[in-house]
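REQUEST ID: PR-0412
SUBMITTED BY: lab tech R.K.
PRIORITY: routine
TASK: structure prediction, single protein chain
INPUT:
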Amino acid sequence: MRIVGRGPRAVGRKKAAAIGAGVFIAGCCLLSSSLRPRPTAFAPRHRPDLAELLDAPDPDRATLDRNLRDIRWINRGLGWTAAMAREVGAVTRAQGLREYTLLDIATGSADIPLAIVARARRRGDRVAVVAADLSRDVLAAARRQIAAGAADIALLCCDARRAPFANRSSDVVTCSLALHHFAPDDATALLRELGRLTRRALVVTDLERCWPGYLGARLLTLALRNRMTRHDAPVSVLRAYTIDELRRMAAEAGLADARVRRGFPFRLVLVWQPPTTGNGAVAW
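STATUS: complete
OUTPUT:
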C-alpha cells in the first residue's frame, strides 16, 4: 500500500516548494532593501548564548553527516556556494593571480573549496588549497566529499582562532558560514587571525541577522527532517551579526577599509585586501 506524499518525488517537491518560498521571501527582502536600506535596529535580538548542535563535542555521526548534507544542499540551492566561488574568482582576477594558494578556514564538508577549485580549473587557473576545521568528524565528511570530487585539497584540524601558519602565508583566505559560531569577542579575534594569514585577499561570508532571514530559516526547516538542521538553522540566524556589527568588528580587528555588503539572500560579504607598500609588499 502506497502512502500518498511519502515517496521520493513527494519529498523532492516538498523541498523544492520550501526553498522556493525561502527564495521568494529573500527576493522581497532584497527588493525592499534596494529601495531603502534595511534598518539593523529592527533585527532580532542577538542570541550568542544559544548553542548549535553542530558545535557539540561528540555529535552522533549519522545525524552530523545528514546535517552537513543539508548545509551543502542549502548552500547550493540558495546560490551561496557559487557566490563564494565568484567572489574568489573576482579578487584573484583583479590581482592578476593565475596561480595562488588558498586557505579555507572552518571548511565544514569542503563544498566551498571544491567549488572554488572547480571554477579555477574552468578558468585555467591553478590553486593549491588547504581546508581547515576544528572537528575531526566534520573533516571525515570533508574527506569523503573531496574524494568524490577528485580534487587535490589538503585537510587540517585546527582552531580557527589559532591557525598554525606564519603571517601572510596564503594568497587568499576564505571563511564561510562560520562567524556566527563565535561570540563577538571571539568573532573579532577570528577576523584578526584571518587578516594575519592572508597575503592578497580575505573573503568572509556569513548569515545576516534579520527577520526575513529568520523566517526563511524556519520555513526551510519544514522540508528537512534532520533534527540538527531543524534546530541549528534558525539558531544560526539569531547568533549571526548585522551589517553594522560586522563592520565594527572588522575595524576592531584591524581590517582597515574592509568592504562589507549584503548578498542575496540574507548574506553578508566581507572582502579585505592588506595594504601594500610602494614596492608591492604587504605593509603590516
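NOTES: The radius of gyration is 19 Å.
REVIEWED BY: pending
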